[in-house]
Amino acid sequence: MLPKTRLGKRSPLGALMGTSCPTMEGPLETGGHRDPPGIVGNPMGPLGPQHLNRFGNKLHPGQKVYVLCGGRESMGVVEQHNHVDNEVSIRLQALGQHVLRKLEDVWTSPTTPPPAAHPPTQDPGRPQRVSSCIDVPRRSPESVDMDEMMAALVLTSLSCSPQVQSSSKTDAVSGCAVMESGCGELSDSGSSGYWSCDRGYGSPAPSPPIPETDSHSLATPSDEGLDMELEQVLFDEQAPRKRWNSVKVSYRCLWPNCGKMLTSVVGIKRHIRTLHLGQSSEHERCFRSEEDFYYTKIHQREPQTLTPPPGVPASSTTVSWIACTSPTRPSSSGVESGAPGAGADGDSVKEVSPQLSKSAPSTPGFIWQVRSEHSYQAPAPVHLVAPPLSASCCWTTPSSAPHPRHCAPVRVRSVSVGEQWLQQHSAPSRPQSASTSPPRTLWTTRRVRGEAKKCRKVYGIEHRDQWCTACRWKKACQRFLD
DNA sequence: GGTGCCGGGTT
DNA sequence: AACCCGGCACC
């Protein structure tokens, strides 16, 4: 539901609606620097015999065209028209040479080409270019209406989900050809919309970097998760195209001694699921998202802010290395998971934890960050370092950066978490679960009653307002620590 | 019974 | 997160 509601704003549709979109506004072209109303296109007429737009533009072998060669316009004959690259192989009759020209640089009428390489507009007297730009204003009102409808349909489909794009990425090459070869009409492939056709006008509307996408997907043919990249492109309409190119997102498997890198979430999840977690139906059914814990998202070319686990090359900035086991609730479920009622409430943490403990990387050496439930109960997050210390994994809570610190003499409760860890990992075959958790007496060492005077004794019950907050709340005294 | 404080509920 | 309180263990 979120994507639907948000996508409206951030999707290309939203961007197109919010900006001047030649596609949508094209038929209503305000004129401006372009032709005044009524005088459209070149003198040959908008739909004249030589009018060539991108969709209708197929240059046949033998067709006479004009290109710029050595600063002069030369006539040539089309030998081949490569729609994918949008290049035309031309044989220049006057010079007897073969040249390769972009479709944009080919004219079909013998006029002097403009001095500028690619001016944004076409003057009425200019030669008819086989341009990649749309000539929407020159269309008939009927086709305009039709195009508006179709464009709306296409944009609607575009705005649905990035997955739509990714699912149709197999059409990337052909879609590119379609886009390159014709924007005036909509092909049945549909989703390759108008919005790529405004490139010539430098519109702020987002145009997907098709070539990059192609090369990217070709570079990683085994990846089916182009969704992230596409999502980035689709959602980041303000960012220049460079940015998409400069920050490459990849995903690294954090399973010990693996470190496999994939460029898609789907791919890395599949890798983790199949190679590390196994494919049991139980996994599929109940712990489908467990793979999330074993990969890290990597933005390359960005300064490193977090140190990944040792053994993993450090290039990541956002690390989703999350342990969702009991450390998130160290003082309750972590210690007293066998307490009455502990197994009853089926929150997600408890649902995941047994499986995690079963399938978690059985790395010898393990830093476990323990957070106290209340800030006044423990001085700070404490890492319990469980021997042996050839640590290779660092499990933290999602929101906190690792703060390596040796195990300080902390309160008994916190230590018991480490003891629990030791107990669990000394018997690795035993899965941790609420039903099989050890007897409470093993784990719950009630806090030793402090010998120091507490607020109640110092100030008395009548001066309760002078107590520390913890004492007022019947918590462990914060002021007079033992 | 008084005290300390854990665990959990409420706001 | 702050606040509150039932209840348990210890003295």
Automatic annotation (TrEMBL):
GO terms for molecular function: DNA-binding transcription factor activity; RNA polymerase II cis-regulatory region sequence-specific DNA binding; zinc ion binding. It comes from the Eukaryota. GO terms for cellular component: nucleus. Residues 1-51, 107-133, 200-220, 325-361, 421-442 are annotated as: Disordered. PROSITE patterns: PROKAR_LIPOPROTEIN, ZINC_FINGER_C2H2_1, ZINC_FINGER_C2H2_2. Pfam families: DUF4772. Its main location: nucleus. SMART domains: c-clamp. This is C2H2-type domain-containing protein. It comes from Esox lucius (Northern pike).
